[in-house]
Amino acid sequence: MRIGPWEIALILVIILIIFGVGRLPQVGGAIGKAIRQFRKAQRGEFEEDEKEEPKSKNTSDGQSAKS
Description:
It is a single chain. By secondary structure, this protein is an all-alpha fold. It has two helices and no strands. The protein has helices spanning 5-43, 46-60. The longest helix is centred in the middle third of the chain and has 39 residues, at 5-43. The protein is flat. The protein starts with a helix and ends in a 7-residue tail after the last helix.
């Protein structure tokens, strides 16, 4: 079963009615972030990202990554 252009248009209209035009960018950003996380988890990159995050947090606080 394939989704045609009419079905996509109907889904977009329903989303606009529910969330409104003002919140649409926030909803799109949240959906995009969720899709990126899902794809990373599928490829097994999720663990690598978690290991790299503490290093970047330490360097932003003014501490060196070596200490």
